[in-house]
Design a protein that fits this description.
Two copies of one chain form a homodimer.
Chain A: H1 7-17, H2 27-50, H3 57-68, H4 74-85, H5 94-115, E1 119-120, E2 123-124, H6 126-130, H7 132-151, H8 157-184, H9 192-217, H10 222-249, H11 252-255, H12 261-264, H13 270-277, H14 292-304, H15 307-325, H16 333-345
Antiparallel strand pairs in A: 1-2
Chain lengths: ~350, ~350
């Protein structure tokens, strides 16, 4: 009943549904979604406690803007599952889980400024609503709050310090990844290897840190917490590669932002890099005034070149490798859920 | 030989020199400057070790841009002195001192974006050189590096956590202060009380945290570390009030940025608030296209209203109160230097 999507099911889904992998979700996967939703709700409920609206109100509303608009809570849920998978209790690491979600939202606010994005989670981005200067502050404040919340976690002092050190190093990685991503937009010759390094820093590292922090704070042995880092790193990489796929195949009403936004922003995704290597040209890359029909033609070209399938298959192999790393853990409900979480990374619609 | 400026000397300096308080520095104060410069050099030498240039190079050059351009290193020097004043060793808390300087520089990079400032320390601001998006990242990365460096300090784990918790709370304060400062620019009715709260959060809190962290990491008793926080808070408040004075009275070639920049940015400083309360109007407040002669006239009006003297006297009283708090400390060279540092806050030219 609690099993995971088998690889062949997943593959056949992809083959059948083309670009709508997430459309057909088996019932067992829905249960896992429900369980994940429970964890997400735990995080949702905690956010107002850790980030209450106080003076100056405007700043706190700006900090809470995206947080309150929902989000999948994947990173904090992963942290809570990691704690349970190593025999700890989710309640004990809840502050750390909230901290991870705050960090994620801080990066969203600042990234949206850099990408000049208007919409996120179906609502105006923070800088659209409050202007760039105040959006910068709201992001900085969320980051500060995250460190404050993590430093107040209930655990061995040495475990807390290890977690803070890991998180801060990870945030340096995030910045490096974001910087590389921006540099890539001025270049036509970005290699797949460079793209992978960027994704590892920009996305995978925070998933990996979330998992490892859940384990560290729960007193896991070093090899176990490292395995959870590896799992998070691999699943996070698969997540980002698939995120680039979703940007192209999911309609705006589901995605909460414009379809093909990455193309308009000129992002060098794995799909674009692969298409370039096959001699495909995408004229509207980096053109903010592209029409809907131009976008539609670009997506069709990427589809027909096989570059979208290439990225989907890459994502799948990372997810499968990530799941295999979990064999070090004893069987538990949480372990099953982590496997399910990895599958969800490439079975989601947005 | 190592005494400090006496209050009456300071007062007479102000009375004699009007707006050039920093011009006449007694020899004993110069010695203290030398001692402070030693601490500053220790910090200077450590910065490249803690923030080496690595891949992606551009990001690290942007992070180091203002750090390498100098700066007074007041916060890290204060932290090192606090450690010595409670019987600790400066070398042991050097990572924490560097962390404080990184935090300060992170706030400078982001504040310069918000203030649309072109110059800092006589060189182009980070966003002028690299653009706003990359300046946001460089700031975020410096902040992350600061937490990473602090978490690697050599001290009791519980002391490190206490320091990180204090620093992160302080950074939330900084954001609140910066947010308030921005809100003030749209209002004509900012009260002196509101201004004081803003200054306490935006500037005094980080000085206070620097001092207390130096003490905490050196194992000081709670009342002693609290006294050092109080000292930093009071001296930091005096520092900021006097900073607003300096903005008006120091020529561009010494200041490293345009004279009267606060007026052009529309900042509600204590001087402006006091002048408003006396019915003085400053037409060029918030006007970026003010001419030099308009600026000169505005400064004369503020001078003649007594508002600049009002701010100078406020600054002095905070500095004096800050020094008096230090009586809890045993006599030491470091204690003398802390007293000298407080005096320096209002005896500097930039």
């Amino acid at each position: 009943m609690f099993g995971t999507l088998k690889e062949n099911e997943l593959q056949s889904n992809i083959k059948i549904s083309g670009f709508h992998l997430g459309k057909i979700l088996p019932a067992k996967c829905e249960y896992q979604n429900m369980y994940l939703q429970e964890k997400a709700k735990l995080v949702d409920k905690s956010i107002p406690k850790f980030v209450p609206i106080t003076h100056p109100d405007g700043m706190y509303y700006a900090m809470r803007h995206l947080l309150d608009a929902g989000g999948k809570r994947l990173r904090p849920s992963a942290l809570l599952l990691a704690a349970e998978a190593v025999g700890g209790r989710a309640e004990n690491v809840l502050p750390a889980a909230v901290a991870l979600e705050l960090i994620h939202n801080f990066t969203l606010i600042h990234d949206d400024i850099m990408d000049e994005a208007d919409l996120r989670r179906g609502i105006p981005t923070v800088h659209k609503k409050w202007g760039v200067p105040k959006a910068i502050i709201a992001g900085d404040a969320l980051y500060s709050k995250a460190i404050e919340v993590l430093s107040s976690a209930k655990s061995e002092p040495s475990h807390i310090i290890e977690s803070i050190e890991l998180l801060s190093k990870t945030c340096v990685d995030l910045c490096e990844g974001q910087w590389m991503d921006m540099d890539f937009q001025d270049r036509k010759d970005v290699t797949e290897e460079e793209y992978m390094t960027m994704v590892e820093k920009k996305t995978a590292a925070l998933f990996a840190a979330a998992l490892k922090i859940g384990a560290i704070l729960s007193g896991a042995k070093r090899d176990v917490s490292q395995a959870l880092w590896d799992y998070g790193f691999l699943a996070g990489t698969g997540f980002q590669i698939y995120d680039d796929v979703i940007d192209l195949i999911t309609p705006e009403e589901i995605l909460g932002k414009a379809q093909g936004g990455d193309i308009i922003e000129g992002k060098r995704t794995l799909i674009i890099i692969n298409a370039f290597s096959k001699g495909v040209t995408i004229d509207i890359l980096g053109k903010s005034n592209a029409t809907r029909s131009e976008m539609s033609a670009a997506i069709t070209a990427l589809k027909e070149s096989g570059s979208i399938d290439y990225a989907i298959n890459k994502a799948i192999s990372f997810i499968e490798e990530g799941k295999s790393v979990l064999k070090i853990l004893p069987n538990s409900e949480a372990k099953k859920m982590l496997i399910g979480l990895a599958d969800y990374m490439i079975a989601r619609k947005y």
